[in-house]
Each structure stands twice: as structure tokens, then as C-alpha cells.
Design goal:
heterodimer; A: mainly alpha; 14 helices; 76% helix; B: mainly alpha; two-stranded antiparallel ribbon
Chain lengths: 334, 474
């Protein structure tokens, strides 16, 4: 019974992280592309498009972190010190990003400074999340129940590449979100920006995918060994489909299709990571089962999660529905 | 390895104390403000008196800024357990983690999910659904306070667990873990403290505007509501605080000894040390001003009750006495000042001069930040008093630390200090600016009232350049 629960929880935590990535991804992406929209009113519309939902989106990050501590405390205790600097820099960046939503309205003279904070906060947070991911994929040195590596282990060419990939990917989510939620000039410019971003992201997904199997033979075995290769080959095929739909949507002036396709790219990349990691929590070092908290912890929180996560999804969906449709800059937000 | 003369453990403690202190200020205010907004909105719907709607809109903006700062400073906390206190997370995570997991699932999502509708959605969803959203945010803050004080209380009075071969705390009885011995007292004391913090902040804003114009209707309403809270809740809070102290005497007597500045055990009635300077090295409280027997009377409700002194415990199991001794006196002193303001307001109300007593208003303005100071002082008392343990009696602070080096913790501490002072310093400045606005809308100084989609008729982009009259046109 223990075994089942730890895998159930791995699924729930993975879902929380994925939910965070796709939801806060377009929030952060909106900030990342701020420099391409210089007009004050354009930036107002952009922040207004995410103001009612960003806080809920970011809560998935708290669930990812808090949940990891609750049900995989050993993994949490090893990963956090290993990724010390990227995590700290991400948290500080999220502070700048989060307060800028409110602060930019509270001042005449300094509002451009908070816009800058919004941009740099969004960008560095995205970069650090990608670097943290890359560092985890590369592997973590562990002795006993503790991290035993150095303080700069996380900084490698591979982790920088994954950092840039997430930065570009979030930017793509951001512009396709703006393409969906805005009209006129902002939408046109977003759609235009989406093309080079799409090409950049696809190139980086390709590069990371080709590099990963050679980092650790576990990954190689998983992707090219039989019979898992049959299933894992589905991922690249579906990625290609998403890429086609993304490009088709952008070249045919669609509003929703590019956003959904970009989300699809993220979901599939995430599934690809899951294939590489399984059954490990920390590649090659700590399995899901070994990282899990005692059964009494898993059971206690699972009872709540089974009831509460569907409720959360329901009222989150309601909130999105309330604020559905295009934002009309002329009439404000009625 | 050290950093600026501090070892990694001390730096990690400083970092946690620094970040949690900043963080705690925002929920301490937003818990009360969320409930206040729910009451104001309900009064508006019930009485259809525009004054309540204006007050709701006024405090809504202040709440939004506070809440944003609470959210971003809170995310730091949920990761800091791992970055700096990974050994604690590994061992206590199975107990503390699920409690915080429930806080996220039952509270954080609820607040965040309905916040957008509560702030921006009145016109989109209608009055009823909007009221539900406002209530959900308020309930969310209270649920959050419940879980986090349960987790914190367990660290003070751990119960319902076993320990496995890896020294990991294994939960055995969740009921006992949540309803651990200090939880009911700590939660009640903390939530009431949050309400009083808001009451005195609201009272100060009301008083400030009464001093400018004593006929200002909105200012009168908020001042009156705040003074009712001060008069009614403060005495209850003092009573609850006393119960909490008795509970601490039962479960953490060393903390009480530190708070009271007692090094020697008093078998025949302990004095109350009013002032003094506890000296842990010399094991004595210098310059002590004492009232004989009163300490025992307060703590044991008997003149000759026994109070243990710090010398009962080996040195490596004693909390440092100076900090809890001082912060406890600050908290209690402010509590009685609050009581004084509450009683004064009752007297003025009875005489019919509540809105015409400038000195009461001036004192209320001066007391505007008293709740924040008291909350932090009380927090330091209990947390420093828990030392040298993270899980009282079971896991030492020194054994809770991550395998971090001092320079890494020191660097991140400096980053946090710089960022927090800039970001939250400016944030507090904006809050004070918002509180200086007259609560009568359509004044010229209200032009910054707009914000991210404040719903009613703002044109984003124009919001900063022109005072927009139609904003409140309902």
C-alpha cells in the first residue's frame, strides 16, 4: 500500500509543478516581453490581463514546494540546499514581480522603475527555474541523507541552456496569451513576436532532448532501450504535431490555437522529463519510494488532496471564466 | 568557516528571523483587514448606505497592497525550510509538511482563487457572488492562521508522534499532532492579536481624518468600529494571554523562567521582576526592580506557588533570557496601553464626545502601529524562548541546519536584507500614502486610487494622469 501512495503523490506533485509552469509561465512571459511594449497604456493592459489570476497561479509553486516537504521530505531536504542560489534568486525575483502589480499603480514618478522590476523579476525567475531544472537533470551529489556537492554545481553549460529554454518558452506562453486576451496593436505585436520565439523554443527543446540521454545512462536506456522506446517515441511525434499547430495558428491569425499549442509543448516536454526521471526523484540517487514520507503522512494529506484539488480546480476555472474574453483598453475592465 | 564573524547556524537563524518577521507583519494585518472588508461589504449590502461601500473601496486598495507583500514574502518561507534547515525538513517534514500542505490546499488557494473576484469582479458577478468571494478571502486567512499555528505549536509542544531509525518524526495520531497542548491558546492569542493589529491601524486612520475634519462620516464610522474592537477584544486578549502563559508554564517552564528573569527557583513565592537586565553568563538579573510574591500570584494564582528558575536546567538546555525578558515586557506594556485606549473610548462614547476628543484621536494615531510591534514582540518571546530547540525537547536547532557554508547563508541574508528593505520599505510608504487619502472619495488626492483593474470605469493608462471621477459611480 505504501508503494502505491508514494507514486500517487509523485503524480500529484508533478501535476502541481506542471500547473505552476503553464499557469505562471504565461504570467512571467508577459513580464519577460515588457521591453517590446514601451507604451504605458500597453503595459497597463498587459498586467491587467493577468492581475486577477497571477496570485492563484503562483500558489501552485507553494504547493509544489510545501507538498514536496510534506510527502517527499528527504528529496526536499537534498534538492533545496543543492539548488541554493538559483532558488534564492528565484524567490527574490518573484518578490519584485509580485509587488510590481500593485506598486506600479501607487506612484507617478517611480512607476517605470516598478515596470523594470516586473521585467527583471519575471525574467530572472524564469531563468532560475530553468537552471534549477537543468541542474537537477544533471544530477546531485548526495552522501547519507544530505547534499554533499559544492555551491556552484548548479551552474553548467547544460543548466544555462535549460535556463534559456525556459525563459524563451515562458516568453512564448506570454505572447500567445496576449494574442488571446488582447486586441489591436498589442495583439498584432504579440503574434509577430511569437514566431521567432517559437523557432527559438523548438530549437532549444531539440537541443536539450538530444543532450539529455548522454548525461546519464539511465536516461539513454529509458529513451532508446526496448520496449520503453516505443512509448517514449510518441512524445517527439506529438511535439511535432504541437509545433505544426502552433505555426499554423500563428500564420492563420488564430487567437486560441497558438496559446493551446504552446501549452502543449510545455506539457509534452514535462512528460518527456517524467519519462527520463522515473522511478527516480533525484536521478540515479533517490527513488520516489525512498524519498517518501512515512505512510501516515502520505495518507493524511492524500485524504485532503483528493477532495480539495478538484474543488480548487473548479473555483480556479470559475475565476478564469469570470474574467474571460478580450480586454478592451478603451472601455476599461467592466 | 564564518562570514562576518558569524557561523552558518547563527546566520541561518538570523535569516529565518529576518524573513519571518517581515512576513508576519503582513498577515497580521491582512487577517484582520480581510474580515473587516467582509463586514463592511455585508453592511453595505444590508443597509445600502454608501458610506460602507466607500469604506470598502478605501480599505480594499490597502488590503490588495498588503496581501501582495504577504504572498511574495510567504513564498520565501515555504522554500527556506529546505534551503537553510534541510535537516529539520528531513526529520520533521513528515509532521510539519502535511500541516502546511493543508494550509496551501484549504487556505492559500481559497484566498488566491477568490481574491481577483473580490477585488475586481463586483460588476462581473453581481453582489451576492461578490459577497461570497469577499467572505471566502476572509475565511481563507483564518484557515491559514489555524494551520500555521498548529504547525508552530507542535514545534513548541510536540505530541502524537514516534521516531524511526533515521531520527525521522513519524506521525502516529494526527488529532494529537494538530490539537497539541499549546495549539488552542496560541491560535486564539495569535488571531486576536491580528484583529487588534487591524483595529488599531484602522482606528489610527480614522482618528487621523477626524483630526482633519471631525464631521467626516467615513472617518467617524471606522474610528467607532475600531474603538469597539479595542474596548471589547483587548480585555479578552489579556485574559487569553494569561491562559497561554499558564499553558507555557506547564509545558515549557524554562521559557517562563527566561521571560520572568528568574535564575533561582523560588519555592516560597516568586517576585515579579518589573525591570532588569538578565545576564546569562553571571546567572542573575541585574538592576532588578521586583514586587514580592506577585510573580507566583500571576503564574500559579497562589502567593507561595513555586516557580522554577533557569538553574534547574543544564546550560545547554536553557533559552537565552535577555530577549524574551525584554520582548515580553514590550508586548504586555502595549497590551495595557491598548486596554487604556479602549476604556478611554468607552468613556468618551458614553459622554458623547467620541468624535470630539482630539487628544483621544492623537493617542489613537500614535497607537496605529502598536499592534505590529506587540505581535512581533510576542513572537520573539515565544520563539527565542523555544531555543535551543526547533522541536522542543527532541530536535536541537544546531541539528536542524542544512549542510550550508557560512558564506552562502551570509550572502543570501544580505540579499534578503537589501531587497526586503527596498521593496517592503517602499511598500509601507505606499500604504501610508493610501492611508493619508481622505476616505471621502472624489477628492483630488484620490487619483491614485485606481489600480490593476479596479473595475468601475477606469481607463487603464489614463488612470495615473487624471483624477477619475466616475470610478465610484455605481
Amino acid at each position: 500500500m505504501d508503494i502505491d501512495l508514494s507514486f500517487v503523490w509523485a503524480g500529484i506533485i508533478a501535476f502541481a509543478v506542471l500547473a505552476y509552469v503553464v499557469l505562471d509561465g504565461f504570467d512571467l512571459g508577459t513580464g519577460i516581453v515588457f521591453p517590446f511594449f514601451r507604451q504605458r497604456r500597453d503595459r497597463d493592459v498587459m498586467t491587467n490581463s493577468i492581475a486577477p489570476v497571477w496570485d492563484g497561479n503562483e500558489t501552485w509553486l507553494v504547493l509544489g514546494g510545501g507538498g514536496l516537504m510534506a510527502v517527499f521530505p528527504l528529496a526536499y531536504a537534498i534538492i533545496m540546499p543543492a539548488l541554493y542560489m538559483p532558488i534564492i534568486l528565484m524567490l527574490v525575483s518573484l518578490i519584485f514581480r509580485g509587488v510590481a502589480f500593485e506598486f506600479r499603480w501607487r506612484t507617478h514618478h517611480e512607476s517605470h522603475l516598478w515596470d523594470f522590476g516586473f521585467w527583471i523579476g519575471s525574467s530572472v525567475a524564469a531563468l532560475m527555474q530553468g537552471i534549477a531544472l537543468g541542474a537537477l537533470v544533471q544530477g546531485i551529489t548526495v552522501e547519507g541523507r544530505q547534499y554533499a556537492g559544492g555551491w556552484w554545481d548548479w551552474l553548467t553549460p547544460f543548466s544555462i541552456m535549460t535556463g534559456v529554454a525556459v525563459l524563451i518558452g515562458y516568453a512564448l506562453l506570454g505572447v500567445t496569451w496576449l494574442n488571446l486576451k488582447t486586441s489591436g496593436e498589442i495583439q498584432a505585436r504579440s503574434a509577430k513576436l511569437a514566431r521567432p520565439l517559437s523557432l527559438g523554443l523548438l530549437a532549444l527543446i531539440g537541443a536539450v532532448s538530444l543532450w539529455t540521454p548522454f548525461i546519464n545512462e539511465i536516461y539513454f536506456e529509458r529513451w532508446f532501450g526496448w520496449p520503453t522506446a516505443f512509448f517514449s517515441s510518441l512524445v517527439p511525434l506529438m511535439l511535432a504535431l504541437c509545433a505544426f499547430l502552433l505555426w499554423h495558428g500563428l500564420t492563420h491569425g488564430k487567437h486560441l490555437q497558438p496559446f493551446l499549442s504552446a501549452l502543449g509543448l510545455f506539457v509534452l516536454s514535462f512528460v518527456g522529463l517524467g519519462i527520463s526521471f522515473y522511478p527516480y526523484m533525484i536521478p540515479g540517487v533517490l527513488t520516489i519510494r525512498d524519498a517518501a514520507a512515512p505512510a501516515s503522512s502520505l495518507k493524511f494529506l492524500l485524504v485532503g488532496a483528493v477532495v480539495l484539488v478538484p474543488m480548487i480546480l473548479a473555483y480556479t476555472a470559475y475565476a478564469y471564466w469570470v474574467f474571460r474574453g478580450k480586454i478592451d483598453p478603451q472601455e476599461g475592465y467592466h | 568557516m564564518t562570514f562576518l564573524g558569524f557561523d552558518a547556524e547563527m546566520l541561518a537563524r538570523m535569516q529565518f528571523a529576518f524573513t519571518v518577521s517581515f512576513h508576519f507583519l503582513f498577515p497580521a494585518f491582512s487577517i484582520g483587514t480581510a474580515s473587516y472588508l467582509a463586514v463592511l461589504n455585508a453592511l453595505w449590502l444590508w443597509k445600502r448606505d454608501e458610506a460602507y461601500l466607500k469604506l470598502f473601496e478605501y480599505w480594499k486598495t490597502i488590503f490588495a497592497v498588503t496581501f501582495a507583500m504577504g504572498v511574495v514574502s510567504g513564498i520565501v518561507m515555504s522554500y527556506q525550510f529546505g534551503t537553510n534547515w534541510s535537516a529539520f525538513s528531513d526529520k520533521a517534514g513528515p509532521v510539519i509538511g502535511p500541516l502546511m500542505g493543508y494550509e496551501v490546499l484549504t487556505a492559500f488557494f481559497l484566498e488566491a482563487g477568490f481574491l481577483g473576484i473580490a477585488l475586481f469582479g463586483r460588476k462581473r458577478v453581481g453582489d451576492t457572488a461578490h459577497m461570497v468571494a469577499v467572505a471566502m478571502v476572509a475565511i481563507g486567512t483564518l484557515i491559514s492562521a489555524t494551520w500555521i499555528t498548529a504547525a508552530n505549536s507542535w514545534m513548541h509542544t510536540p505530541a502524537g508522534f514516534g521516531v524511526d531509525a533515521n531520527d525521522v518524526f513519524v506521525p502516529q495520531d494526527w488529532w494529537k499532532i494538530i490539537f497539541n497542548p499549546s495549539f488552542p491558546y496560541r491560535m486564539t492569542h495569535t488571531v486576536m492579536a491580528a484583529f487588534l493589529t487591524t483595529a488599531f491601524a484602522v482606528g489610527a486612520v480614522g482618528a487621523l481624518h477626524l483630526l482633519k475634519d471631525r464631521t467626516n462620516r467615513q472617518a467617524r464610522i471606522m474610528f467607532s468600529m475600531a474603538m469597539w474592537m479595542a474596548a471589547i477584544v483587548t480585555p479578552i486578549q489579556i485574559f487569553v494571554g494569561d491562559l497561554h502563559g499558564l499553558n507555557t508554564l506547564e509545558h515549557q517552564p524554562a521559557k517562563i523562567a527566561a521571560m520572568e528573569g528568574h535564575y533561582e527557583t523560588h519555592k516560597n513565592g516568586a517576585p515579579l521582576v518589573l525591570f532588569g537586565i538578565p545576564d546569562d553568563e553571571a546567572e542573575t538579573t541585574r538592576y532588578a526592580v521586583e514586587v514580592p510574591k506577585l510573580g507566583s500570584l500571576i503564574l500559579t494564582h497562589e502567593l507561595n506557588g513555586e516557580i522554577k528558575g533557569l538553574k534547574e536546567w543544564p546550560r545547554d538546555q536553557r533559552p537565552p533570557a535577555l530577549m524574551p525578558f525584554i520582548t515580553f515586557r514590550i508586548m504586555v506594556g502595549l497590551g495595557f496601553l491598548m486596554l487604556g485606549v479602549g476604556l478611554w473610548s468607552l468613556w468618551a462614547r458614553w459622554k458623547g464626545t467620541l468624535y470630539d476628543t482630539p487628544w483621544l484621536h492623537r493617542v489613537a494615531v500614535a497607537m496605529g502601529g502598536s499592534g505590529f510591534v506587540a505581535v512581533l514582540a510576542g513572537w520573539y518571546t515565544t520563539e527565542v524562548g523555544r531555543q535551543p530547540w526547533t522541536v522542543y525537547g527532541h530536535l536541537r536547532t544546531a541539528e536542524s541546519l542544512s549542510p550550508v557554508s557560512a558564506p552562502a547563508v551570509g550572502t543570501s541574508l544580505l540579499i534578503f536584507i537589501a531587497v526586503y528593505f527596498v521593496v517592503f520599505g517602499v511598500g509601507v510608504y505606499y500604504l501610508l500614502k493610501l492611508m493619508r487619502r481622505s476616505p471621502t472619495p472624489l477628492d483630488a488626492d484620490q487619483e491614485l486610487d485606481a489600480g490593476p483593474i479596479r473595475t468601475a470605469g477606469i481607463m487603464p493608462g489614463a488612470a495615473q494622469d487624471h483624477p477619475i471621477g466616475g470610478r465610484h459611480g455605481h
